[in-house]
Amino acid sequence: MTPSTNSTRRAERTGPFPRALRCAETTPGYPELTPPPLRVDEPGELIAALPAMLGFVPERSLVVAVLHGDGRGRTTAIEAVVRFDLDSVTDPHHIDQLCACLSSICVREAATGVLAVFVDDRRESAALEALRIVTLLETLDAEGIVVRGAWAVPAIAAGARFRGLLDTATGSVADPGASMIALSHVLDGKQIRPSRGELTALVAPDPPLCARVGDRLGSAVTRYRAGLSAAQRAGRSTAYQRRALEWVLWQIADAASGEPRADRELAQLAATLRDRPIRDALYGLALGDHAEAAEQLWAQLARATPGTDRAEAAALLGFSAYVRGDGPFAGIALAAAVAADADHSMAVLLETSLQSGLRPERLRKLAHCGQQIAADLGVDIGPIRR
């Protein structure tokens, strides 16, 4: 089987599911960006490759590889990798939603079959739950989607023992860090996190920092608005916003060194992002050379502010992760944005797009618009690299 190894995105929910149930995290590939295929021929190799496909090492998860044929019966590719939180999908109230979600993803990807991997370190209940869910997954057969393989493993680590759920096969997991897919991702500059929790920590609120920045935010907003009002009266609002945007770009360049921003700088940044043209222009960075540095800054700001200011930063972060194909992180950031401000239109739009499986290339227009807004202010934020 040939896995897609180039891109990821997250579909937190598909269909009218309650927000409490995050339906799935998916990692579909995009043909126009696909590198030479890498083959995965054994269950142990497939299981070892899952962290690279997801971007983190899954724990207590149901991971489903969605298969797609070439139409001639000669090649089967992994078109998407879908992760479900095992505690959610084993809840009897959510089983039907699991099947509906997976069915929707399979239909969207024109799937011909699926492979399932259960990652669960709880030996007592794992076997029964795994077999029960495999039985439910087999209901997809009515739609022409066959469960072609299913395995259970306590952890995705070198030497961990897996066992077949549809047969008596057993074996050892290969070294996840040595897989060709992991190597491909590392060479592409993509990180493989030890756990999903490490991703959520990147945007988790920092209460002491929020308090310190909050003490400075009111005066920062007052200064920015007073300066903009004075510039508008003088007919120099564009020049004022140009300087403001250039200051944000300088902060991003400096953030690339890894040094955290000072409290006053974070407060000034939050105040500046309340100016809609500045905020919109910054979406253009997601396709350029400074995207990674910008993400570092948006993550800092998301940890340092509550409410709408947190939503602004998390939405910028989620969009950047979305268009570069990091679906799991995009989903975490966008969920944080919506949780911070349920009425934040951009965050809601992006999260809905992700949940519905909209491919990243469809959102590039937003980045192009951001670049044009910056150009209208007289600022060149750099060429498109991604």
Q: What would your notes on this structure say?
A:
This protein is α+β, with helices and mostly antiparallel strands. The chain folds into 2 domains: 2-194, no CATH class; 207-376, no CATH class. It has 15 helices and 8 strands. The chain has helices at 43-54, 86-89, 95-108, 123-137, 180-187, 196-201, 207-233, 237-255, 263-273, 276-282, 291-304, 307-323, 327-340, 345-355, 364-376; strands at residues 2-3, 25-26, 61-69, 76-85, 113-119, 146-153, 161-164, 170-172. Strands 1, 2, 3, 4, 5, 6, 7 and 8 form an 8-stranded mixed sheet that branches. Helix 4 links the parallel strand 5 and strand 6 (146-153). Residues 2-22 and 28-36 have low confidence and may be disordered.
- Count of DSSP-assigned helices: 15
Q: Mind describing the biggest β-sheet?
A: 8 strands, mixed
Low-confidence stretches: 2-22, 28-36
Helix/strand structural class = alpha+beta
The mean pLDDT is: 82
SSE ordering: EEHEEHHEHEEEHHHHHHHHHHH
What is the terminal-to-terminal distance?
27 Å
Shape: elongated
Q: How many domains make up the 3D coordinates?
A: 2
User: Helix proportion of residues, in percent?
Assistant: 40-55%
Radius of gyration: 22 Å
Number of strands: 8
- The proportion of strand residues reads 5-15%
